Here is the input.
Amino acid sequence: MLFNSYLFIFLFLPVVLLGYFALGRRGNVAPVVWLALCSLAFYSFSNWQFVPLLIASIAFNYVVGLFLIERKLGPRARRVMLTIGVVGDLVVLGIFKYAGFIVVNLNAIFATGISIAILLPVGISFYTFTQIAFLVDAYRGSVARYALPHYALFVTYFPHLIAGPILHHKDMLPQFERSETKRANPHLILCGLIIFSIGLFKKTCLADGIQPLVSLAFDLSTPSLDQAWIGALAYTFQLYFDFSGYSDMAVGISLMFGIFLPINFNSPYKARSIIDFWRRWHMTLSQFLRDYLYISLGGNRRGPLLRYVNLMVTMLLGGLWHGAAWTFVAWGALHGAYLCINHAWNRFGPNISPRLARLGDIVALLLTFVAVVVAWVFFRADTVDAALTILTRMTDPSHIVFGRGEIADSGIIVLYAALAWFAPNTQEIMGYDHAHRRVGERLTVWRLRPLFLYATAAVLAFGILGIQSHSEFIYFRF
Amino acid sequence: MSVRNLVQFVGAAVAVMLMSVGLNFVVDPLQLFRSANFYKPMYSNDSRMQNAGLIRSQTFDTVFMGTSLAIHFRQSDIDRVVGGRSLKLSMTGSSSHEQSFVLAAALARHPKRVIWEVDDWIFRNAPDVDADIYLPADLYRRNPRGIAEYLFNGVMARESAWMLARSTPLLAPVATRVSTGIVFKFPIPDVDDINVLAPTFDLGSFYNATRAMAAFASITSPARRVYLADGYNFDAMMKNFERDAIGLIQANPEVQFDIYLPPYSILQFVAMRDASPATLKIVYDFTAFVAQRLTQLPNVRLHDFRAIKEVTHDLSNYGDVIHHSPVVDAKVLQWLASGEYRVDPSKPLASLDALKAQVEAYRVPRFSPSPLVGEGGSPR
Here is the structure.
C-alpha cells in the first residue's frame, strides 16, 4: 500500500489510528499488537507473497537475539550466534537481491544462458539492516530484553517498513513501551498531519511534477548538453523530493501515533562538502553504515591509509545495498572517492582566509552539488555505459539546443533549486526535535497560526489532488 | 494546539479540494461534459487518457486503431486518402483488450467504419482493463468513480488553469512559451497534431538501416533472444483474439472493419527464424488462424502488408525491426484505399505463404555502418 493513495489516507490510516487509541484505553500491549497486525496487513496489501518471509525473518532474529541477550553463553558461543544471525540475514538478502545480478555477470563472463527470475521483496533491505543492528548490539551487550510484540512492531512498524527511515531499537522500543503514546494527543496528531501533508506535497506535486523532465537525459539517445543537464538536475531534485517526501510522511504518520521517528534528510543540497552531504542525506543509512560497517572495519583507528580503504569499502557496499547493478557500484565508488578526497583536503588542504569564507562557502556548495549530480547519473542510468554517455553529453559544448522547450524547462529547474537551497526544511518549519521529543511548540503561541494552518491545509489538498494512480516511491525498489 | 485547530485544518483542506474540483468541472480539459466554448481547447499525446475525451468531443464516422505502428498518422491524411471523417485512437504498446475496450467506447457513437492495425503480439498478454494503471477505464465508462478521479485531480486542475491562461490575451504569450509538452499534459492546439512527428523531426537519422540492423543484432543476441518468445502461447492468443477482436466485430455487424497486418521489416521474422523458431511457428499458425477467421466475417476486409517485399526488405524504411517511417504510413493509406493487398477470402493464406517463402529465402546482409547507410541508405 502506498502512502500516496486514497485507500491509505482515507481508510487505512484513520481505522488504524482509531483502533490504536481505542485499544490504548484497555492496556499497553493490545495497541502494540494491533499496530503490528495492521503493519502486516499494510505490507501484505501489495506484497502478500512475502509476508511469510518477513515473519520468518522476525522470528529468526528474535530467537537469535534472545540467545545473545538471555543465555549465559561464552564469548565463542556468542560470536557463533552472532555469525549465524548476521550470515542468515545476509544470505536471505543475497538470494533475493543479488542472485539475479550474479547470474547476469556469470552469463556475461562464461557466455552461458542461465536465467532466474526472483522477485525482490519490498523493504527487505530496510528490515534486514534494522535487525542486523539489533543483533550486533545484542552481542555487544547493549540491548535489554524486549517482548515479542514490541520487537515485531519495531521491525514491521508500517510508517518505516517499506523504505525507512532505518530505525534503531534503542530509539523505538522504549517509545512502544510508553503508555503515554497510546492516548490521542490532538497536538501531535495535527503536527503529524501537517508533516505528512508536506511530505505528500513533496511527493505528488514536486517529485512527480518534475519526473517528465528526467527523460530528457535518460530516455533520449543523443541528448544535447543542455538537455542532459536538465535531465540530470531534474533527477537530482526528483529523487530528493521523492525520498524526503516519503520520509516526511513516515515521520508525520508516526507522530500521529505519538511515536517520534528519526529524521532522514536535513536539506542535503545545502551541504558544503561531501562529508556534510552524507550527514544530511539518508541520515539513518549513513549512521548505520558508520556504526555497523565503517567502525567495524576499523574506521579511522588504524591509520590514514586504512581509513581511506574503509571509506571506499563502506561506500561500495552502501552502493550495492541500493541495488544489484554495476551502476550502483559505480555510484558508491564515486562517493567513496569523493569522501577520500574530502578527508584528504581537510587534512592537507590550505585554510581559507576569513575574508574569502563566504565565497569559499558558495564554491564549496556548488562543487559539492555538481559532484552529487554527477554521481546521481550513475544511480539513475540503466548501465554504466549509458551513464558515461550522458556525462559525455553534459560536457560536450558542440551540441546545444536551448530552444523554447529547454528554456522553459530550465525555469522549472531553477524553481526547484531555489526550493532545495533556500526554503526551510520540514523539521525547521515544524520545530521537530527528535532527540527531545518536541514538535510544533512555537506554533502554539504564534500569532499567525491560523494563516499557517490554512496554508498547510492547502498543501495537504494539493498533495491529495496530486495523487496519481501509478506513482511508486523510488526507494521502494532498494 | 487543540481539536478546534485540527478541524480548521481539515476543513480548509476540503475547501481547497472543492475549489479545484469546481475548476476542473468548469474548464473540463478533456471536454467530457461539453465542448470547449469559452477557451481554446488543447490536446494531449497521452492517448489512453485523451481518447476518452476525443470520443465524446469529436465528430467522426471512421475510427482508426492500432499500436505505435499506427500512431503517427494524421487524421486529415486518413480522411483525404481513405475517405470519411476519422478519429485516431491508436495507443502505444496497447494490448488487444485495451484496443477492444476503447473501440467499444467509440462504437457507442455509431461510426460506419473501423480501420484497425493489428499486431500478433497484442494478443499475447491482454489483462483486464481495470488492472491497467495507464488506462482510465472508468473515465471511458463515465461512471462516478471515473468522473471523481477526473475532477479530484490536481494535475488536471493545473491543466485547467493553464488552458485558461493560454486563452487570456494578457497571459497567453507567456503560457504558450512555457507549454513544452514535457511537464504540461495538454500542449497540442490542433487535434490533427496528436502524436504525429514534428516537422523538425529528423527522419533520416531515426529511420535507417543502421538502426534496423542494430535492433536485429540486439534482439537476437544470446542474452536477449529468450525475450522473443515472451508471452507467445497459441491457445492464449487465440482466446484473446476471439474475445477482443471477433467478439467486438460480431457485436457490431453494421460497422465495416478494415483490418490490416502492418509491414514489419523482414528482420522481425528472420530474427525469430534464427533465434526462436518455435516462436515463428506460433506467429505463422496464429496469423493463419486470424486470416481464416476474419475472412469468414461479412463486415471485415482483411489487408495483409507483411509480404510487400519492396518495403519490408528495404531496411532504410525502419527505425528498428518493426517501426516504419511516415513514408510507409502514406503507402499504407494508399493500399487501404485501393484494396490492393486485400486478402482474398477464398485464399486466406496466400499472403502468409508468400511471407514464409520470403523469410526462408532471406539472408541477413553483412553489414558495416557507412556514411551512406547512416543517411538512410540500404545495406544491400
